[in-house]
Structures are given as C-alpha cells and as structure tokens.
Known about the structure:
This protein is an all-alpha fold.
Amino acid sequence: MSVLDSVRATPAKQDKSVVATRDSKQPQPRTRFGAWLQRPLASFHLVVTIATLLTLLGLVMVLSASSVESYSHDGSAYGLFFQQAMFALLGLVLFYFALRMPIRVLRKLSFPAFAASVLALVLVLIPGIGVWVNGARRWFNIFGVSVQPSEIAKVTLALWGAHILASRRSENASLKEIIIPLVPAGVVVCGLVVLQPNLSTTISLGIILAALLWFGGLPVKLFVTIVASGMAMAVVLALSVGYRSARVQSFLNPSLDPQGKNYQARQAMYSLADGGIWGRGLGQSRAKWNYLPNSHNDFIFAIIGEELGFLGCTLVIGLFALFVYTGLRIAMRSADPFLRLLTAAATSWIVAQAFINMGYVVGLLPVTGLQLPLVSAGGSSLAITLLMFGVIANAARHEPEAIAALHAGKDGRFSKLLRLPKPEKYSPVKAEAARAKAAKRNAARAAQARAARAKEAAQARQRQMHKQRQLREQSQGLRSQGQRRRAPEPRRRAGERGFTR
C-alpha cells in the first residue's frame, strides 16, 4: 500500500494498515541514513531540522534582499530584517506552544478558533478596523504590528476540518456528512478573503479544503467535480480584475510590454540566469538594487538563484521535497485519524504554496503573489507557518513507535531540553467510547431541544385556544346584547293609559 493510499484509506483499512505496518518485519536498511530513519523519533527530528534550516535561510536571504530598500526608506539596512527576526521569535514561541499542546485540547479548541478567525475576516473588511494598504483591506494594525487574519484562517480551517472528518469516520458515513458543514464553511471563508481582495490566500485555502476532502475519503468523481468548480471560479476571479488579468496576459505572452506588465517576471528570469551554477555570492545580487520589485517577498527565490546559484535553488527544492516525504510519512504512521488528516492537509498546503511560488518565479505559472513558506519576508506568514510546523512535529511525537520510545525513557536531548510532556497513546476503543459518549450527549441535547420545542408549541396552542375562547365569549355577549336591543315592545290593550287608535 502506497503512502497516499494508506492516508486516504477507509477507517477500518487505516487501522489495519497501521497495525500491519507496525507488526510486519522491517527490511534491513542499506545506508546509515536508512538506519537513522528507522529510529522512533526520526520524523520529529526531520520536521524540526527542516523548519530550522528554512527559517535560517529565510532570515539570511531577507537581510540580503531587503537591505537596499530598507536603507532607502529608513536609513538602516536592517529594518525589514529586524521585523522578520521578531516574527521568527514569535513563530518559535508558537512552535513550542503547538509542540506541547495535547491533541485532545487541540481538537477541543479547533471550532472556537475557526469561529474566531471567521469573525476576524469579517471585522477586517470594516473601514476603520481593517487597514487599507495597496488597494486591499487585509490587515489589522495592533500596537504598530500588522496581523493578517487570513493567514490564521489557514491553520484553523485545517484543524477544524480534520476534526470534523475524523469525528465522522464511520464506514457508513454519507456524502452529506463528509461535505457538510466543511465545504460550505470553506466557501464562506474563501468568499470573505476574496472581498479583501486576496486571490493568492484564497488559492491556499482552496488547497487546504481540497486536501481535507481527498484524504478524508471523498469519492473521486465528486472530488474532481468540486476541484474543477473551484478552478473555474479561480480563473473567473483572475480575469475579473485589471491587475490579475494583466498577470495572466503577461504569462500567456511573455514578450508583451517588457517594461510594464512583464517587467517583474523578466527581471526574475534575468536574476536566475545571472546566478548560474554557483551564484554571484551571498549579498552580491544586482537585482535587489531596485531592479526587481518585491525581491525580498514574492520573488526571493530569484535572489536565492542569483546569489547562491543553481545549487542554492536545489537546496531549497530538496528541503521542501524532504518535507513532503516527512509529512506523508507521519500521516501514514499515525494511528489517530485526526493527526493523519491534519498532517496530510498541512503538508499539501505548505508544499503546494512553495512550488506555486517557485513556479511563477521561473515562469511556469502566472504570478499569484503566494509567498515562499518560511523564506519570504512576511511576519504573519512566517509565524503561522512555524505554528503549523509545531503541530506537525507534535503529530510526529504521537507515532506509535515514538510514544513507546518516549514512555520508555528514550526522550533524547532535544525533548529533555524543552521538557516536553509525554504524548498520550491513541486508543481506538477510547476513541469509539468518546464518540459514543459525544453522540449520546448530542442526542440528549437534541431530545431536550425537541421537548422544549414541543412544550413551547403546546403552550402556544393553549394560548391560541384561550384567545379563541375569549373571542367566542365576547362575540356571544355582543350578540345577546344586540338581540335585547332589537326586541319589539309589547302591544298595549285598549283602554290602557296611553292607548290610541
């Protein structure tokens, strides 16, 4: 069974595959790296190493690429670098926080966090609350620090979506239970981000939603239909606004307007060509001298190619390729369905965003504005991506072999240094009992709600009957009074007083 098949298998097959993988005899490794990969905490160390290398590389390249622009604006070459370093420290704190958080607490907080992120996406659209910068309202300004709520929505959508799908992982779960409420909620979030406008983040949210549906076991035909509809909507949005349409036209016709629409893409290609195999050397880029716009942000991969050459680009691609292997390895080896879905979706999101960024820098895709994770300048993106890496590292410590090793006292220096708690072992029996308890509690709440509605309906009927009774009594009283008024006076006999012929 392949990695993708193991992650996307039905719940019963997933549990059997995990047991079979754990109980089967592992082949003897032929290399030292293969032997190291068979260690219980190999996945955890890989995630930490990849996150550290990409973050350090990003800080170095942001310092190099932004020094000219920072000096021209502030008189200091370190302005943007210090801001990026501050968010890197914040991301390190979030990484450690996610690493220590128990999985049950993570699942319990998933929906409140998602609801809070949706509320933030609504608030950022309100003038006076959201900050309008470069034709978009995407940021909050909190004590002089810009925070982008759409980046937070990526993490909360992945957490809540994995929780929803893992909670409904029974064999006979209907398509309605898989799609609703995940797909409508995802569409609402994407719609709020489009209103900012921010098509690049909308694409990232769509990738997360598609990954959750795929690894959650959605039928292929329905999955293809949903993805095709999303891609068609993305094309419509890309062609509906002037600057987006210009990007698509410049991609389809690279020779069109080289000093205008195609200027940025052409300068990125010149930077890559100037770097060659070995590069011009760290800090020796020519494009950063105001030749390549956004050289420290969207097009930092071009600066990497110019200063570090083809070897530097290969290193970045290799780190993300290793992250693909590590993330899917964690998803395949995890026993908890929530961690399987979450790790697979998060890996798909981060890697897809990275390769889309590198794709439009080298001219294979239209320019979308997606940043290179952990490398491009952008405080919110850096901190949130490190938080997601912490969640994935936490999932790596919950592999069955890792749990056994940690409970046996084989923590390692890194775990002992951070004083990380022992992970809880996933038990299908306890999970089924918890789901049954939750279903019973939900059924009791539903029964109470139905009883309350029935009581309210009975009281409403009684009030209506009482009003009808009062109306009948009033109508009967009015009728009797009318009859007394209309009754004729009796005729008087002749000779009586007042008699006249």
